Amino acid sequence: MEKLFAKGNIGKMRLKNRVYMTAMTTGFAGKNGQPTDQLLSYYEERAKGGVGLIVTEIFKVNTVHGNALGNQLYALDPNNLPALAQMTARIHRYGTKMVAQLHHGGSTNNPDLNGGRLVGPSAIPNISGIVPEELTLEEIAELKQQFIMSAAMCKAADFDGVQLHCAHGYLLCEFLSASANQRDDQYGGSLENRCRLPIEILQGIKAVCGPDFPVLIRFSVQEYDPGHPNSISLEEGVEIAKAFEAAGADAIDVSCGNYFTMYGENMETYHYEQGWRKDATKAVKDAVSIPVMGMNNIKEPEFAETLLEEGVCDFVGVGRGHIADPQWVRKAYTGRSAEIRKCMGCMYCFESLLSIGYARCAANPRMGREYSFREQPVKNGDGRPVAVIGGGPAGMQAASLLANRGFDVTLFEAQDALGGALTLAGSTAPYKNKMLKMRDTLALEVEKSGAKVCLGTKADVDTVAALNPVGVFIAAGAKPVVPPIPGIDNAKVVLANDVVAGKVKVSGKVVIAGSGLTGMETAEMISRQGDVTELSLVDMLPQIGAGLYPSIYFNVMRNLAACNAQMYPGHAVKCIDDKGITMTKVEDGSELFLEADYVILALGLKPDKAMIQAFDEKFDRVYVLGEANAAPGRIGISISDAYIAAYCFDPEA
Ligand SMILES: Cc1cc2nc3c(=O)[nH]c(=O)nc-3n(C[C@H](O)[C@H](O)[C@H](O)COP(=O)(O)O)c2cc1C
User: Fold this and answer.
1) What would the mean pLDDT of 317-341 be, rounded to a whole number?
2) Minimum CA distance residue for ligand 1 atom 5
3) Of all residues in the chain, what percent carry a pLDDT higher than 90?
4) Does residue 307 line the site of ligand 1, with CB under 6 A?
5) Which has more confidence, 395 or 557?
6) Running DSSP on this structure, what letter comes out for residue 410?
7) How far is the CA of 267 from the centre of ligand 1 (A)?
8) Which residue blocks in 466-596 are alpha helix, DSSP H?
9) How confident is the model at residue 115 (pLDDT cuts 50, 70, 90)?
10) Active-site residue among 170, 224, 272, 348?
């Protein structure tokens, strides 16, 4: 991977390789706008992992209407300077450069954080239907100064440059886009006018910080927004890139999408392949001479290398890849790509950010916990035996970490291969092979750790007792819920997991009961099988796919619409017979009958409490992990439970 590890320049900024970590907001900053120990440790770990450049998460530049989060970095307060300088110092130790991303969310900000007030270039409703106030010329002038002075403060804190966030539907993107910007003054109308604000900021920064202080522009070269025909098209995006180059930008960081696209295109779910929109990046590369940076849903270093070989970009952005494995670069450099825990595109990171206020990673339980879990856990196993029951994600994580701590680990798996929920999740569609890759990486970790693996072995209390273990870790997953509905024993009733695992083949008219992720993805899977003639999804809840992360929901629904799947939200299964399934409408109790050759149950999972109790009564130290503990679960929670339990396990306490 010669090209990936070649040095390169952005302006006068020299980078040790061609990989940059794209800007990603974590929620780890302090409420005062300073980096916390948690944030510093998180970034330092990525620098230690070898990445050439880190673009930070968003800095706010305005505290009146520019707050995107309650805890966001902020450079304009001089009190924050020492902590920000510490941040750059901790990154520079490893030869990594750090650029601060300057941001204003415009009409996408949360009004609650901004005194109820949202602003934008024009009074055009945002995705929630809220109409922002149109910024006045005085406010624009003030905002411009705030961007410029933020850059000056970042320079004082020893940042190597700044990046203007003009992408994803935020304020500067709104100015660029004719769909959000309908001003009739010098900041709206023509492309030149729409580019004016970011360019004035860019040139203002150069004037204050000096021509050699790198200013990078991240913008959406294509908004992919079918609902807004005036949004930025690729053709216009290329013109915008040329305008930024002419105005003195040091590099273009090509992104795409806006808020109306629900993150589908700029932060792809597992539905997308690596490099699916590389042509858009290449279009910019072909049009400008300054360095082009681009993220392209990159999971694997080998693929990143091909982008450089094909001249798609000069620097490859690896965002979530760095959340999932801070050693992405180091492992690539040392020929250990197979050991990289690769992003699965499951969106657990952004979903956590939106729901609990900070990001977590399904693949990497240490993400955001670097300050508390040191890289190497205490190695004090001293060969004492432990048993791990279940070889799914939780079991594999627990087994390898315990073995690395020096315990004598025996991992029991009832199936004839490791994988569990990851194998099931990865089997529903070709694009879900990202889950299978994670399975393979975890299995490799188990192998390298030296843990003993007993496949095809359903461990009971006696089998485990024979080991005389100092700890028992139960990661045996959960059992499908089979409710006592009349006709549930009918031969046409099958379990979703059996369909996914290929144990049962369905055909003809198929009804799926339950529309959580398992039900939805089973539907997607069988919809591709030609022998399914009619497909229906039934759920008691008022919405099909309730609780799914929006961009995952959107992609699954799009695929199901393509096969004309029928949806029955708000319907409970009443009974099943040889002809089909009778449902009751929750709202009014009316009944509906659907003919069915097969009824697939995807009604959730429940832990095997009797089995857990038997182990608990026999052994002193029993740890119940993942779905064995709470079902249905999440891969992220399973891996994280297992990591923490194995890290903290102490047979003497
Ligand atoms: C948790 C999370 C937070 C993000 N925050 C930002 C941000 O602050 N600024 C930004 O420009 N992009 C942000 N992004 C988008 C990423 O920079 C990147 O463009 C996207 O994740 C796609 O690249 P990847 O496939 O390499 O992850 C964020 C993405 C994630 C997953």
Assistant:
1) 98
2) 24
3) 91
4) no
5) 395
6) E
7) 6
8) 496-500, 517-527, 550-562
9) very high
10) 170
Q: Report the residue among 24, 60, 253 best suited for mutation to probe ligand 1: largest number of ligand atoms under 8 A from its CB.
A: 24
Distance CA 143, CA 132 (A): 16
The one-character DSSP state at 2 is: T
Active site residue 170: yes
What is the distance between the alpha carbons of residues 74 and 31, in angstroms, rounded to a whole number? Answer: 9
**CA distance linking residue 323 with residue 359, whole number of Å:** 9
| pLDDT for position 294 | 96
User: Which CA distances in Å does 430 have to 179, 425, 435?
Assistant: 36, 11, 10
Name which residue sits closest to atom 30 of ligand 1, judged by CA: 24
Q: Residue 163 CA: which ligand 1 atom is closest?
A: 11
CA of 320 to the centre of ligand 1 (A): 7
Give residue-wise pLDDT tens across range 459-505. Answer: 999 999 999 999 999 999 999 999 999 999 999 999 999 999 999 99
Residue 23 beta carbon below 6 angstroms from any ligand 1 atom: yes
**Chain CA centroid to CA 215, Å:** 27
Query: Rounded to the nearest whole angstrom, what is the distance from the C-alpha of residue 651 to the centroid of ligand 1?
Result: 41
| 269, two tokens | 């779910």
Domains of the chain: 8-356 (3.20.20.70), 385-480+607-648 (3.40.50.720), 493-603 (3.50.50.60)
Bridge-based pairing state of the strands 591-595 and 580-585 = antiparallel
Atom nearest to 167 CA in ligand 1: 11
- Residue 430 neighbours by CB distance under 10 Å: 9
- Rounded to 10 deg, the angle between the 191-209 and 137-156 helix axes is 40
CA 514 to CA 528: how far, in whole Å?
19
Distance of CA 105 to CAs 5, 108, 286, 319, 329, Å? 34, 5, 30, 20, 31
Q: For 88-114, write each residue's pLDDT tens digit.
A: 999 999 999 999 999 999 999 999 999
Tens digit of pLDDT for each residue in 128-182?
999 999 999 999 999 999 999 999 999 999 999 999 999 999 999 999 999 999 9
Q: What is the pTM of this model?
A: 0.96
What whole-number distance in Å separates Cα of residue 119 and Cα of residue 137? Answer: 13
pLDDT digits (tens, 9 = 90+) for 198-249: 999 999 999 999 999 999 999 999 999 888 889 999 999 999 999 999 999 9
Which residue from 254, 267, 360 has its CB within 8 A of the most atoms of ligand 1, so it is best to mutate? 267
Handedness of CA 189, 194, 196, 197 (dihedral sign): positive
* 435 has pLDDT over 90: yes
Q: Is 349 in the pocket of ligand 1 (CB under 6 A)?
A: yes
Quick: pLDDT tens for 545-578. Answer: 998 988 899 888 888 888 889 999 999 999 999 9
Burial of 124 (0-12, 13-18, 19+ CB in 10 A): middle
